[in-house]
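Give me structure tokens for this 292-residue protein.
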Amino acid sequence: MKPIDLSIPIGIATPPWPTYEPLQMKYFKRLAPNGANGQLLTHSNHVGTHLDGEIHFYTPGKDIAALSLDYLMHEGAIVDLSDVAGDYDVYTSKMVEERVEVKEGDILVIHTGYHHYGWDQPAADEIRYMVKHPGPDREFAEWCRKKKLRWLGVDCGSADHPMNTIIRTWMPRQAKEADRHFREKHGQPLEAFFDDSKYQLMHIELFNHSIIHAECLGGDIDLLLNRRAVIGAFPWRLVDGESCICRILAFVDDAEHARLMARKAKAKLTRFGDIAGVDNPALHEEARKVRQ
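Here you go.
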């Protein structure tokens, strides 16, 4: 088995979730005169690819250190919803199950396609990435509980719809756009569709069932759309950690890894060496022909 990286690069330009502390990095010692380089990092837990822990929203829940390796690494599925979910759209469990097999107890990674607008990509658009990405309704959270999923991952700013978070208040111009979208597509205003009873339901209604999620995935995720793999999240063993920056990997057998790396060798890449999502449409077209 060999790994495929599903994590985005992280640096001082990586945007955190709105209002969270970004990564700050400085040297506190140098080769001259100290004999070694040393750096000091300051950051919140919600910048770059990160795992939201139970106590992020559920006080009596587990901290990051309490998550077992069997929980963090398991079989799962990577589903591509980029063909059916655009700006402010709502995705459903039906959309997922039409594209990939999801088994009880799986890890599920959702490719909305919005990592294509991440800071590391050639089509970077921070507002679209954080504020306009699609998200689910309560039906989806109920399905996650029924499937007894271990955890979820998303390739955008939040596992919740951005307009079902405080972003709706912070970004009034985009909230007006979303309201028009919901009236046209769902026949009701935004505040009626996502009323107060549904607020951040992917956090509040799942973390107390030990179904947490990772946000801001990316890397070479475009190589693995609509298929199954072994998936692992590797945060620090952070005692009292409510969340944690982490590396997320998918594992495939050696022959499949060689085939995927051959595909990558022909693809256009970002300046960090990952698949440039918008510049490789063939990867998405191929995935839509296959259901695993």
